[in-house]
Amino acid sequence: MAIAEKKDLYTFPGPPDAVSPEWPGTPIGAKNTVTRTKGRTAVHDKTVDRKPGLFRRLVANAVESIASSGQRTYAHDVVIHGLRVRAITNSEHLIGYWKDNWYGVDEWLRITGKRAAETPDVLVIALGRVPTEAEAAYYSRQNDTVIFFNTSYYGQLKSWVLGAVGRKLAVEYGVHSIHGAVVTKDGKGILYIAPTGTGKSTSTYGVMEFPNTRFHSDDWVYVRYAYRTKDGKTVSPLRILDGGEEVAKGYQTYRWLEEHRSSDATVVGRGLDDREVTASAKDLDVDHPEAYAYTSEKVFYLRSNLVENFPQAAFDMIRSRLENAPDVTPEFMAEHKATIDAIQAKLQGKPPFDRMDEATLRTTIARFFAFDNTRAMLDITTVFPKERVFTNPMEPARINAVLLIKRNFDEDVVVERLPIDKFMARLLIGLTPAGTKEIVYNSYRAVDDKSERAWIDTIEAKGVDRMWSEYEKAKDKPETLHEEMEMFRMLYSSAAAYDLNTTLQKDKAITSKMEAVSKTMRIIVKALENTKSDFRYDIGSYRKLVE
Questions:
Q1: What own/partner pairs with CB < 8 Å and gap ≥ 24 does 184-187 have?
Q2: Structural domains of the chain, count
Q3: Most buried pick, 330, 371, 372, 530, via CB within 10 A?
């Protein structure tokens, strides 16, 4: 029996039994897997280390399940920004997506010339059909381990893995993990940070319509902060040795260097080519840091509704393994006829869609965007020429501008350059279009976000305009939050920061969503070129920028 969704506009085939975490959906693409859980698990615990005995119990139950279930278990190691990550799972769907998504150990060596550690830095265990456990997700920072039970939804697994990798990179290497996207124009990088549904992917792909652009990343970037030396080297600090003793490492190095400008301490770091570099602290230009982005994924896991704005993505998606592609009803087809017509015009007669009759083609198009969380793996080099894509995960992109994207129809401001207090307050609050709050617009973070949120609420209560000053002087801020905001402080020092409100539809002269998107892209390019601190345009004045 099919499960009806969204006023019967689309449906999913029901599960074969009461315990299967995944099962086949109606065929589309190379494969279509329906997952019982299509979002966050009912139990989601990132505070395992505070609960004595819990981690040991979880591992014991996982080992017991692997030994006794009789199900096939897969194991595969990948490299995520230099860290070796091992996945162990009995889900065919999860292991398939895992291999598609990331660089394997041999691939990493071949592409980057870098050899991964022999043993995993992070371990991921994801098992279904475990009767002794609830549908749940757990994380232990002390053990750098993620454990999932009875869910096959790849989206949550990916996000928790990125969070676990990010914690280790921040503390030990000073690398900033950001839920964002990057594209470059004329060699200058634009970093978008935004909650879901505000136009991050649309903006990334949209700027690619301009000449001299390169696609970098769609969802997640690793940022390294670096300083120039007097002899022209670029150093991204890892640790600082003073008198033979380590006085700072990872994200702590930035503040230490600012406070010890004339020190003879040795800075041990990496150059942009990832080779070890050493320098004296006093030789670094700490007043002018630089930010460099590195891509994370080999193939992008993204929402297939991208085809609404970029129909060309469908050519690769139709060959991809899909996750949760629904069946659509006649009511959906009728309600979205105009959108289906527009996409059909771009696809019809071109392989492989030329082999479909019109009804099949239109239904296929509808299934790509009917459910907001249908996912596919997209090889971006099938959308853009390979030379216009960053394909080496260790090739840096210099970030020159960072845009915090929002969609707030109650505000008339379209774009403005942000002072640091507004920039940091926006990130701390993390207000989404749905009215929820995500610290730094990143629900992936492997931290106790409830305790962080409670602490942030205490300084927000004193006034948004005072949040950053209150944060700076507070002595009791959570250490995990301090990690994050210290690196965002470095980002602000390294690039021009802007607020972008994607609401040009408010302009009565705008006749279509496509026109609104096109003009928003031109605003973004103008912001990248801007050097003024008073750059600010509202719904009544933005046309001065784009005409």
A1: 184/213, 184/214, 184/216, 184/397, 185/210, 185/212, 185/213, 185/525, 185/528, 186/212, 187/212, 187/398
A2: 3
A3: 371
Distance of alpha carbon 337 from its chain centroid, rounded?
A: 32
- Residue 157 belongs to some domain of the structure: yes
Indicate the residue among 284, 314, 346 that finishes a domain.
Answer: 284
- Per-10-residue mean pLDDT of the chain, 547 residues long, equals 61 96 97 96 96 98 95 97 97 97 97 95 98 97 98 96 95 94 97 83 88 94 96 94 95 97 96 93 97 95 90 93 97 96 96 97 98 93 93 96 94 96 97 91 91 97 97 96 97 98 92 87 96 95 92
Dist CA 376 CA 12 (whole Å): 17
Please say whether the beta carbons of 94 and 75 come within 8 A: no
What is the extent of the structural domain holding 99? 43-173
Q: Which amino acid is at 526?
A: K
Is 0.85 topped by the overall pTM?
yes
Same domain, yes or no: 56 and 156: yes
Residue at 507: amino acid letter: D
Which of 284, 305, 325 is at the close of a domain? 284
Residue 45, number of CB atoms within 10 A of its CB:
17
Is 47 within the bounds of a domain? yes
Does some domain include residue 127?
Answer: yes
DSSP 3: E
Look at the alpha carbons of 78, 80, 83, 87 in this order and tell me if their dihedral is positive or negative: negative
Same domain, 473 and 541: yes
214 CB burial (10 A radius; 0-12, 13-18, 19+): buried
Whether 315 is in a domain gets the answer no
